[in-house]
Amino acid sequence: MEKEMTQVTFGSQQVSVIAGGFYDRYRMNPDLDQVAKDPLAGDISWFRTLPKRQLDSRVGLTWAPNFYYRSQNLQLLMLAPLAKLKASLPVPLEPLRALPGYGLVALTFFSYDLCDNDPYQEASVAVVIRAPGAKGSQLGELISAMGQRHFHAHVLALPVTTEIARVRGVEAYQLPKWRADIDLEISDKASARILGPDGKVDLAVCAPLPRLSRVSSQSHMSQATMVHQVDGRWQQTRVQTNTLAFAQQLLPRKLPLTRGQGPLSTLLQQLGAGRVLRFDVVQDAQSALHLPTPLGARL
């Protein structure tokens, strides 16, 4: 059954959102006591440690960080030739070397089942990069990033399924977002797909679900830092994640990735992304997306 929609103002645009949904009710500043009553929310104590602030942004004053109370994701971490990765990055960004002559591309599918700007799905193609200002051994930097579960990346594509997610990403963050049909299912198997503009499969993956590990809240924290330009200036955008149930396979032997003729398949081909080094499935997680902050002289 289709949900009733209503019009809200975001920046200078009118955007359709779910009538009575979280965005319509709270405008990014939720009452966590009310959120806790939602059956999907689970334990939200971590979010109480992250007080929201009203900050200036490209679209005026907005509440940050953005909370994702219940989410899932599937990620393929793939090798790609350094030369092709470097050609895809704006100067002075540099791909992080994983093996001689090769760097890393992350293809990720997300499902945000409960969040401040209503449920939606998302897909991402990102190049893992050296941290701004990093010096010395790239191997040492890679080992450190793995140990700390904190990677830096430059996002090349970020399609989403709803208009509020698209407009927020483009207007507030200047990220490469557009609307697309995206599905993610994590049950006894892990499957995801995105359709191209012609309605045909752009990318699809389906594999048995690896054995899950379930951990206590805040015991398996990670962070991703997107490095990108906003109005011609270099910024960094942090995403903190509190992972609760996850699985991982190194060097999976059978992981069929169906490629079509859509924009993400074309992008992976241009990057030369091939061998899958790691297959990650997150069945349950919570995340906080911060507003961009200036990098200053670090680049």
Summarize the structure.
By secondary structure, this protein is of the alpha+beta class. The chain contains six helices and 17 strands.
What percent of residues are in strands?
over 45%
* Tally of DSSP β-strands: 17
What fraction, in percent, of the residue positions are helical?
10-25%
Number of helices: 6
Poorly predicted runs of 5 or more residues: none
Order of strands across the biggest sheet? 5-6-7-8-13-14-16
What labels would you give this structure?
single chain; 299 residues; alpha+beta; 7-stranded mixed beta barrel; 4-stranded antiparallel beta sheet; 6 helices; 16% helix; 46% strand
Description:
This protein has 299 residues and is an alpha+beta fold. Helices cover 16% and strands 46% of the residues. The chain is built from six helices and 17 strands. The chain has helices at 22-26, 32-35, 82-88, 138-148, 163-173, 263-271, and strands spanning 5-10, 13-18, 53-57, 60-64, 66-81, 102-115, 120-129, 150-157, 182-186, 189-195, 201-208, 213-214, 221-230, 233-250, 257-259, 276-289, 293-294. The chain has a seven-stranded mixed barrel with strand order 5-6-7-8-13-14-16. The protein has a four-stranded antiparallel β-sheet with strand order 9-10-11-15, with helices on one face. Strands 1-2 form a two-stranded antiparallel sheet. A hairpin with a 4-residue loop joins strand 6 and strand 7. The chain is globular. The mean pLDDT is 96.
